[in-house]
Structure formats: C-alpha cells, structure tokens
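Field: sequence (string)
Field: structure_tokens (string)

Example rows 1 and 2, in order.
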Amino acid sequence: MHVRRVELTDFRSYERVAVDLDPGVSVLVGQNGMGKTNLVEALGYVATLDSHRVATDAPLVRVGASSAVIRCAIAHDGRELLVELEIVPGRANRARLNRSPVRRPREVLGALRMVLFAPEDLELVRGDPSERRRYLDDLLVARQPRYAGVRADYDRVVKQRNALLRTAYLTRKVGGTRGQDLSTLAVWDQHLAYHGAELLAGRLELAAALGPHLTKAYDAVAAGRSAAVIGYASRLGESLPTDRSALEAMILESLAERRAAEIERGTTLVGPHRDDLSLQLGELPTKGYASHGESWSFALALRLAAYDLLRSDGIEPVLALDDVFAELDTDRRERLAALVSDAAQLLVTCAVPEDVPAGLRGARYDVGTGAVTRVS
C-alpha cells in the first residue's frame, strides 16, 4: 500500500497544494512552521478520521475558510482508491470514496492504513490514560475497520448514560426524588455491557498481540538496555477472559456494584472508557520512572510495534516519522533507519537533511510557505 497523491484545499497552512508520492522513502525538508507536519497530519486524518495534534477539527481549517478538503489517492494490490474528506467545523464532515458519497465518514476507514510517529507521542508514555486508549482503539480499527462502529456505538451509549445520570444528579440537588429520573438506567446498562464487552474483548486480544512486537521494537531502538512490557489494566480486574458473553456479565455485575457511586457522582464509572494500558520497563512503570530518553524510545517502540503487527497481519501500512531523528543520538538513528528501511512507503519530515541517516535518503521534497516542491 502507498499514497500516490495527496491534495489539500484550505487545510491548515495550505490554500491549495498537490503532492505526488512514490513507494519507498520520501523526505520532506523545511524549516519549522512551513507545513511539513500538516502534510502527514492530513494523511493521518484519512487513516483515522482524527488529528494527532488537536482534539477538534476547527484548527484544521485554514483561517478565513469555511471548510477544508483532503483528497488522497491510495494504491493497493493493483487498484487505486480515491478518498475525499470535507472537514466542516460545527457540522458533520462529508466523505466520498471513488467519487461516490458514503453515508458516514467512517466507511472510508481501512482505505489507508498508516502508522504515524510524532513528538506528541511522548504523551503515550507520560500522558493521561485517554492517550493510550486512543492509541489502542486506532490500531484496533486499523486492523479491523468494523471496530469503528463498535467504538462509536459504545461512545454513544456512555454519552447517553452520562446524560441520564447527570440529570438525576441535578434533580436530586434541587430536592427531586431518585427513582423518577432513573427509570431507563437498566436499559442503558444492557447497552453499555453489550458494546463495552465487544470493545473490551478486542482491546484485550490486541494488547496480547502487541506484547512481543513491543519487546522486540524497544530492544532494537534502545539496544537491549531494558525489557519493555505492555498489559491491559481494567477496572474489572486482572486476567480477564476474551469471551464476549463473560465480559458482558462482568460489566453488568460491576455496574450493579457501583450503582450507588455512579448516582452520587452523576457519571458512568464502569466500562472500557475507564481502562488504561500498563507500560513497564523491567519491573517499573514507565510513567514517573523512565527518563526522557527511555520515554521517547518507548513511545517510538509503541508505534513500531503497531507497524510490525499490521505487517504480520498481511497489511503493509504507510509509515510516517515526523521530526523523529532530531531527537535521537547517532546510534539510535542508525538502528531506527535499519528497522524501517524496507517499508513499502516511508515518509520522513525533518528541518535539517543531515539528521536523516544516509540509508533513508530517498526522494526529497522542499517544503516552503504554502508550497511543496520535489527536488530529487
């Protein structure tokens, strides 16, 4: 799989730009703030319908424009797919696949499989659990696009259930009764347990599959200085089954146990939206114990593990490294270059060409204000 062409209209700093890409290595060179990251961000948006840099779509639209458009031609197995996304802040985005509208943008997920590593990924190690859940869920969808629907259904149920609990909480605050406003809570419990069990089972299977790939990737990046370990940390307990029915029963039981606390706090306290990934170096958790270099290497290993896992599934994803080599010493640069040199398509951004190891000097593009020019 590779991106053959990407066109942007009113996306970030670009009023209009088109870039033709080849398989193999492409290096995007430009000073900071010129738009290198905007290009890989746009491709990442096609792959996940989300930005790795911001939580909302509004910053993706160029100042003064009402919407942004991403067009991406993807070559795979002798066929070409054209994905078009229109980003309209405050309204539902629109998507087209091979020029035909689709009912929901998520129907284009799977057209482009991509693994993107960026400086923001340090938050995978040091940030909130939401960052690690997002990493896991994005990879889950990349492997099996049907999980986009599972994820959306679960999020919808949590939102509705939280609204019910919040209304009940506010009603009691002004002297109302408890039972009147919670009559449908049992129905939402069933929905949450059903969709939550499906999402949780997928996450558990994925975390187990990632383990060997993470250990291998960290060992390669850090030259065997410690062993990286990943696990799934659920509020339901340890050593959970992957059977959907068993998980559904466990969620329902936990909901019953936490009912009083949920009513008291006005929010849903049970379910995979409360879970986390456990990341360790040796016997110690990475968060709070790992150095900056170890944290950076661990975050990079998480992305490389995702890349290797997709490849082991028979999926050849696009790999993008955004300003990565500037953060690595010479030895780690060379080790990383050896790991990714055989990628079907590798996109590298840098401010200084010399930061990129010689083995990754492929096609070069100069990125200036609002323009991208191929120079070699």
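Row 2 begins here:
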Amino acid sequence: MNAYGAGSRKLLSELVAHGSAAALPKVLGPFSITCMGIGAIIGAGIFVLTGTAAALYAGPAVLVSFILAAIACAFVGLCYAELAALIPVAGSTYTYTYASLGRLAAWLVGWNLVLEYSIGSAAVAVGWSGYFTGALASMGITVPPQLAASTGTLVKLADGTTARAFADLPAVGIVALLTLLLILGTRESARTNNIMVAVKLVVVLAFIAFGAGHVVTANWQPFVPPNNGTFGSFGWSGVLHGASVVFFTYIGFDAVSNCAQEAKRPQRDMPLGILGSLAISTVLYVAVAAVLVGIVPYQQLNVPAPIGLAVERIGVPWLTFLIEAGALFGITTAILVLLYGQSRIFAIMAQDRLMPPLFAKLHPRLQTPWASQLMIGVVVAAVAAVVPIATLGELVGVGTLFAFIMVCVAVWRLRALEPHAHRPFRVPLVPLVPVLGILSCIGLMIGLSPLTWTRLVLWVAIGVAIYFAFGRGKGRAQ
C-alpha cells in the first residue's frame, strides 16, 4: 500500500513525537478538563429535552432513558480514556481513526464531527437565543421577534400580526463573543468556562434540592406508560426512543479529548476528565429528571422550558430567575466547548494536509489556532442565524454516534496493531467493552428516524466526494 493510499495510517510513535513538538501551551489540569466536560454535557439538553422525551416518548421512565444513554456513553468513554492517554495529541476521534483505520476513514470521521461540533454549537446557540430573549422580556426589554428567530420563520408581533423573521441575531452574537474569547487564549477560555460551570452546577443542585420537597409520587405512575400502538411512543420502545433523544444531552463529552495536547499531564488528566465529567453529569441528569416528572405530570412537559414550568409550580420567584440564569450559563459553556473542539480538529486535519494549511497556523502571540477558530465562528454564526433548531438537532446525534462507533473500533484495532504500546489507562475486557459500545450506539441509532439515516448517507457521500477531489494524495506521508 503506498504512503498516500486511503488505508495508510499514522504510527503511534509518529503521533506522540509530532504532538510533543507542537507549540500549544500545556495549561489545563484535571479540574479544568473535568469542567470542560461538564460544560459541554450539561447544556441546552437538560433544560429542554428532558421534558420533550418524557412527554412524547418515555413518561416517568425518562430516568431509564438517561441511564441507557449514559451506559452507551460509559462504554465509549472508557475507549476515549484509553486513546486520549495513549495518544495525547489534538484531533479526538479523527486522530484515533487515522492511527487505526487509515486516512480515508479518518477524513470521514472528521467530516462527521462537523455535524457534532459545528452544527451542534449552532443548534445550542439557537437555544441560547430563546432563553436570552425570554430573560430580557422578564426584565421588560423586548427584542423584535423578526431579529430573534431563524430566517423565514413566521413570528407573532406585538400588535397580533405575523411576519417573517430576518435572522436570529442573538445566536450570532453569542457565537461571535465566544469565538473571540477562544482566539484570545485557552487559559482564559478555561477560566471563564470554570466559572460558568460552577454557576450552572449551583443552579441544577438548587432545582433538585427545592424541587425534591414538591414531588408528588403519584406523578411517577405508571412509570412506563403503555405503548399507544406506535413503535417508540411509550412502552419500552418509547424508553429506547427517549434514550435516542436525550442522548443529545451527552453530546460534547468527547470534546474533552481535544484538550489532550494542552493538558499538563495527559496520561493522568485525560481519563479523569472524561470519566469524571460523564459520571457527575449522569447523576445530575437522573436526579433532575426524577424531580421534574415528580412535580409536573409528564403529559404537560412538552414545552420549550420544562424546568421553568416546574419552578413555577414550586412557587419560589427568585428560583425562577436563578434557573433562567443557569440555563444561559449552561448553554453558553456548551457552545464554548463545541467551538473549541471543532477548531482543534480542523487544525490537526490541516497539519495532515486534509484541510487548507492556514487552519493549522497559531497566532504568534496568543498561541491559538486563530484562523481555524475564526472560520468556524463565522460559519456557525451564519448557520445559527438562518436554520431552525429542529433541523439542526436532527443532524447532530447521528454524526456523533457514527464517531463514537469509530472510537470503539479504534481501541480494538490498535490492540491488535500495536499490542506492546504503553497504555497508561487500559479499557478492561477488550474486545467485550468496545463491542458493547458499538452495539449500544447502533441501538440508539435504531431509535432515530429514517430521514435522519438518509441525511447521514448523503452527508457521508458528500464527504467521500470531497476527499477524492481534494484530500486524495495530499495527506501526510506515513
């Protein structure tokens, strides 16, 4: 196989040597890395999708949906932990796939990660816009509806008439602000993220603490509502469908693996950050879901702000304001980490000549991949301005599950290709755990709609076409 073949791969020794020579400063410890993970995981999903999954698919058993999604993420998280410690360089799933399956597979993974990071951050930015305009409205400040909704969306004006929206400008604004922060430096971004994560955790814990005393246990019955005759609509198939929906709330934990090249001690810090953030977030998710469906009957939770509805039932005015603030902070940290992750993946792909070389250049003073970060910010802001959140959300989960499957395959494959490599963290029971991770992800994908599968096939086909038009023969020789 020639050095430029689609199956050519990078050796672990080359990856580690190349990563050691990189100029990115090592400024992140385990606390900051864990906060990056929590910041990515606990975002718009916990404030929106918990209610949707309970009302439409799983009922009170949405708790089980969260646990099923967490189990799938746990298998994948173990694989991420081994690979992040084994290959402590930027690039996440893209890099791991390049080392195990070759350049074409790596390109396709990088292409699908665009669905998770760029499209995901655009979707979350649209959600942020909704909470932001709502918070302003509660203070008597009205944002014209035409300037706070996706292009062409029919909005209702103050006089009762309707009009078509121009663009979602608050979504553009938050993406622009966070892009600037990321360009200014990783250390500064991490500090800001840590503060916002702390506020977010206080808010989530306050909801659990105050809400627990208002739970009506009768609202938990029946725990698994009977199926209404349609697959995925209540019953145990609804619990599976609910798991596929709430899986969106876990999207982003893999962004922690992009911190490897800036971690102080990646072999120790990366497994702690990945598994720690996943464990903390899962406990909080299940607790929030239990309190939410205990306060409000699940049939009433299909609303844009289900936790806000529950807080109204509690009847503590100041808690309502706290929840709104926490939602804004929570969603902001999710956007921050997703934008960060996408820029690091593009930068490493540019080093491999599968992206324009400009994306790999670091700012001479700030030492951040400014060109990659700026381009991503512009594209994400444009998408967030014009595309509805429902369309964006459908694209995110399937791309992420595809990438997760490739991570599990990479662990299994590298154990065979380079069995004697030093692994500071080892996945137990290989190949059982990677296989369970693959099967879990496939199970969640089964819960997605046929239209989503069609979009995945089209997206992959476009990626293959781009590879053979641009990337073939341009990759770094191995």
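free_text_note (row 2): The chain has one domain: 29-469.
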